[in-house]
Amino acid sequence: xxxxxxxxxxxxxxxxxxxxxxxxxxxxxxxxxxxxxxxxxxxxxxxxxxxxxxxxxxxxxxxxxxxxxxxxxxxxxxxxxxxxxxxxxxxxxxxxxxxxxxxxxxxxxxxxxxxxxxxxxxxxxxxxxxxxxxxxxxxxxxxxxxxxxxxxxxxxxxxxxxxxxxxxxxxxxxxxxxxxxxxxxxxxxxxxxxxxxxxxxxxxxxxxxxxxxxxxxxxxxxxxxxxxxxxxxxxxxxxxxxxxxxxxxx
Length: 250
Description:
Helix content is 45%, strand content 15%. Strand 6 (185-190), helix 7 and strand 7 (213-218) form a beta-alpha-beta unit. The N and C termini lie far apart (54 Å). It is globular. It contains 8 helices and 7 strands. It has 250 residues and is an alpha/beta fold.
């Protein structure tokens, strides 16, 4: 059986400005590690946690809920504050982007960068297919016997709809609170997004109340934009946005 090396949270220490980097559903901290390295080389402290049930066998994923993941996000933010950081921005991919928006009306963030963040629940069938595909690939990489894979996948498939329903509740909750977001926002959307409704970016742009807000589309990118063909441009754009912020501590 092949041993899958579990991902680890990363902390790249830099200056007094901190960026919390949040991965997506079924992803892990590796999704945002390259952005973290890029920003760290330019003076930012970057922290990339991962959520409960992620980066471990998929049967562990379906034992967790979005409430658990939000708790992990709050713990990560608190970790930065307890480490002395008072100037914090939050960037997130997919469900991490949803959490970045929630951070925008929960914490005194300097800015937020939601990337390919869903604002409606019309994508549940695609999420289901993607999650089941992730689970099966994980199992096959472990080189488990086919019969064992089928048994374990049946259990995961049975529990996945309940988890996706809970994700839908989270998305609707954040959507209903977008008007509370006033922090500067750089909204990132992949034009070729195969996982979410790309119109989510327009919804977010129009419903948040941030005086400073930008929306940029990346024409050649798919959902995991942080690892895609336009990642170099994305890195530069996020850096430019962060550099434009007021980082003074109020």
